Amino acid sequence: MLKRTLIGLMSLLVIGVGGFAALAWRPAIAPITPPAVSSFAPDLVARGAVLAGAGYCATCHTAPGGAPYAGGYAMQTGFGTIYSTNITPEVETGIGSWSEAAFRRAMHSGVSRDGSHLFPAFPYDHFTKLTDADVAALYAYMMTRTPVRAAPLENGLPFPLNLRPLQAGWKLLFFQPGRYVEQPARGEVWNRGAYLAEGISHCGACHTPRNALGAEERGNAFAGAPIDHWVAPPLTKANPSPVPWSQDELVTYLRRGVSRFHGVAAGPMSPVVHDGLARLPDADIAALGLYFADVGQAAARAAEAQPAIERALAMNAHDPGLPYDPTARLYAAACASCHFNGGGQVNALRPDLALNSAVSLSDPTNLIRVMLYGVTAREGAPGIVMPGFAPALSDADIARIAAYLRATRTSHPAWPDLEKTVAAVRAQGRGQE
């Protein structure tokens, strides 16, 4: 009886392993000789350049100080470090031997030319929504870049997470392949914004929380999430900013990297605006603005804006703690001269901290990072610099100012363990440049 039971269990195991192997197997696609650059129509290449910008391909596939698109950019995940790959048309270490069919399969299905499954750090769960025409344009652009020989770096994933066949199981659970399906009742502009946001620009990859297996929580889209030691704020009505993100503010922010009522694009959002979306035409930026204004229910919250602005300006005009509160005086010495707004107006280049998104978030990380490391001339508003106070102020000083702003500029509860959080953020350093 025991022998028959063991034989049965072994048979089930063999069948299970065989079934999973069949599920995971994908055929290789034959390599090709790289097509001549002249074989791609210039207008197709130009269109691909716009799409590559919208997809932040250079941002993720270029290591700090490295050649464009040659890979090696370190992406920290909850499971270990994954390095981006070389997507230049170099034959041995890049995608020079990839046919358009192989490239399209990678974009739509997350499978490499050799048949191996790609890790979802490559956002094929968003790129699957792209039309074949847009994938063809991206292929034309990538295959006309300068080939760079750059061998892939070894990922820092532990066993068995480093086994690519296991990605087939992940896909079975979390991946929904298929092109974007329009919603005609929403109108052409809204659908264009949705196609960009959910597809090539993969906004949910940063702004949507992930489950324990690293998949986006689809039922909680755009609800905010930690990313690269920052916090990507909610894009839904849950965003705690005092002034709701209107369509006009979204368009201005996505086009220029600065919002009068929310602050500037810093951290991971800076290259999104200045290196990626900068290539999109104004019509596409307007479409993204319309789409996310709808996601955030901006119209329903419009009445909240003016009272919030008036409260912020009133606080600028009279800070009751300044004469006797040492922390208020520290804030006045370090911050107030640049962040003061008066005359009944808010100046976009002097962000009002009573309105700034970072002060209202439930997590103080963004505020602390900006206080410690500042905002460079190529981030945020072009040419405007905020100095970092990491060399000048202690963890306790930074924590005091953050607590003061939270208490005086918002009605939200105090952040706990601020000094410990400041120390942790300082230990992380500024991050990749």
TrEMBL record:
Give its localization. Answer: Cell membrane
> What UniProt keywords are attached to this protein's entry?
Cell membrane, Electron transport, Heme, Iron, Membrane, Metal-binding, Repeat, Respiratory chain, Signal, Transport
PROSITE patterns from the xrefs? CYTC
As cofactor, the record names: heme c
Question: What does the entry list as the binding residues for heme c 3?
Answer: C335, C338, H339
**Alphabetical list of SUPFAM superfamilies matching this protein:** Cytochrome c
Q: Which InterPro entries match?
A: Cyt_c-like_dom, Cyt_c-like_dom_sf, Cyt_C_IC, Cytochrome_c-type_DH, Membr-bd_ADH_cyt_c
Task: Note the superkingdom of the native organism.
Answer: Bacteria
Question: What positions does the entry give for heme c 2 binding?
Answer: C203, C206, H207
Residue span, Cytochrome c domain: 43-146, 182-296, 322-409
Question: Which parts of the sequence bind heme c 1?
Answer: C57, C60, H61
GO terms (molecular function) for this protein are: electron transfer activity; heme binding; iron ion binding; oxidoreductase activity, acting on CH-OH group of donors
Per its UniProt record, what Pfam families does this chain match?
Cytochrom_C (PF00034), Cytochrome_CBB3 (PF13442)
Name where it mostly resides.
membrane
Q: How is the cofactor bound?
A: Binds 3 heme c groups covalently per subunit.
Q: Which GO terms describe its cellular component?
A: plasma membrane
Q: Where are the transmembrane segments?
A: none
- Annotated protein name in UniProt: Cytochrome c
